[in-house]
Amino acid sequence: MAEQSRDELLKKLMAEVDPKNIPAHIAIIMDGNGRWAKKKGQPRVFGHHEGARRVKNIVRFCNDIGVKHLSLYAFSIENWLRPSLEVSTLMRLFSTYIIKERDGLDAENVRFEFCGRRESMPPKVMEELDRIVASLKHNTGLVLTVCINYGGRAEIVDAVKSIISKGYKPEDITEELISQNLYCADILPDVDLMIRTSGEMRTSNFHIWRGAYSELYFTPALWPEFDSVEMVKAILAYQNRERRFGMTSEQVQE
Ligand code: FPP
Fold first, then answer.
1. Ligand 1 test: best mutation among 28, 29, 31, most atoms within 8 Å of CB?
2. Cys staple from 211: which of 109, 110, 207, 228, with CB 3.0 to 4.6 Å?
């Protein structure tokens, strides 16, 4: 679709958005980089580079419309099994991307967080990420959380280990206590809307605790094709759902 009509479509869809019902925490499984690259006759890493470019637009757009938290599934614990060239390219891409975008994020008042298992991360990459996290701590706009070396089950295992190490007894264990011991516990709330691109309909171990009540949205668009129009479509789908949290429709509408 031509650029002009894509802009017009965005305007038209934005007019339908209820600004009072923007999901506070959107989590995205950015899938389809490899397939996008293959369609273009390019190596998989080409797709990851294009995927990284997409991140910038989506962060800006979400910040502009008042989303508070955006978490991106950039690298799962299982992704270490990928070919070593792809793994090393991705790790390099994470730190170079964040370093390159740091000033832009700061200018847009965006905060940055890392969410995942720190051990087994390349120390240099972790060092760079920590540095950027610290340097953007003062910002009060959207919190961009990049989930790297992340697994939802691993996060729960680590939460349980942390609880045991603090000396809690079985009778002390509550859902609240587990929530308080997840990664980024004091920053990241439950997920309202979870999006997966590329037509796959799984949540693949992403935010399994925080996502217990999230609305799921699947789109055939590959991640490098996911633009503001696609994001607004996801938000409109979310706004058309009724979130009941186990209650009846009548109770929710009271
Ligand atoms: C899944 O697509 C994507 C990934 C494993 C990597 C996601 C990384 C990026 C978008 C790059 C940069 C991100 C940041 C935050 C700077 P896939 O490779 O599994 O696609 P396929 O299923 O088509 O093979």
1. 31
2. 207
